[in-house]
Specification:
single chain; 423 residues; alpha/beta; Rossmann fold; 2 domains; 7-stranded parallel sheet; 15 helices; 37% helix; globular
Amino acid sequence: MNPLRFCFFTTFYPPYNFGGDGIAVQNLARGLVSHGCEVTVVHDCDAYRALHRKPDPPAPTPEPGLRRVALESRLGRLSPLLTHQCGRPIVHGRRIRRLLRESRFDVLVFHNVSLIGGPGLLSYGQGIPKIYMAHEHWLVCESHTLWRHNRELCTGRQCIRCALHYRRPPQLWRWTRYLARQTRHVDTFVAMSEFSRRKHRELGFEPPMEVLPQFVLPVDEPATTRAEDRPPHPRPYFLFVGRLERMKGLDDVVSAFEQFGDADLLVAGEGEYGPELKQRASGNARIVFLGRLEKRVLDDYYRHAIALIVPSVGYETFGLTIIEAFQHGTPVIARRVGPLQEIIEPAGGGMTFETVDELVFALRSVQGDPARRAALGDQAFGAYQSCYTARVVVPRFLDLSRKTIEAHRRNRLPAAWRVGSDT
């Protein structure tokens, strides 16, 4: 088969990104390139700068087979604000249309399009098959997270009040049928987990969704031999990796480590909730905040952790850090919410909890029984190899892409075409 030419649209892409969705997009792009495909990634630097008031990261190194198109304008933060409010690529629309006219793409893949073009972007590239990857709950949630008022799980729509709690202007176009009309242009929708697919359906998203998990690329081997591979921290430790936000549930972990004193807690990540968390943990010297770490350094912390803790109280769409831990044979202790147990329990690669007391029990169980910890780690690594590598997931994505192309050519679009139909 001839290699395919993809165009990715995503608001954030490394190093202009914050969380796991940008990493997942990068992993898919690199995985496709490794299978002989060509990938163009279009991302929005203006949106990144609007949310990150610090100097830009170092320029990325060019990668063969992977082309970057970084959108930026003299309007700066105003550009993504116009997109957010109008639901269209107001500033960059002309450049995007020109790119699609001048290039010959086989498939357009939409990832997080919230600030790069909104729903208006979905109708660009007429005649080209389109796939939408639901890395977030943006299709059914203005805040993307189903974390209502920045304090609780969403159990019913209070969207305008919720947006104001996030200090964002409400998107009035969401109260029209505009999003439904635009999603008709997409051939195939993909959820990251069975849970996410169910949640989209519960919240009124009608088209069928395929399920395709995220994956991680192979890690760089440590420069030292196994015998010389020393832990990056002097004491035994549990690890948290992710954005420091209220919905990530670290408050409960801080409370657990007030009762549990046999190991340290290392927190890798940054976020707007960081200062409050650090204040809460200021009396506990065993809780160490590492900041944001480069991948090679983070791999070292994963490898030597007793376990990764994933305490999210909100609905994730997947759980990329779980797979990153599995890759290193590191067990995971995660809250029983959303898709987290969907990943961990079938794999047997860790434990789940609901309360702080259950978390403390899990911490003691994993650290206090080295044989059990080793068995959990072995099962975690086995799940990674069988389910969450590029070797496994990329061929499934390519098969999905070719089916989408064939259906589009026959003008027999999947049932997803009917979303928002007035009939």
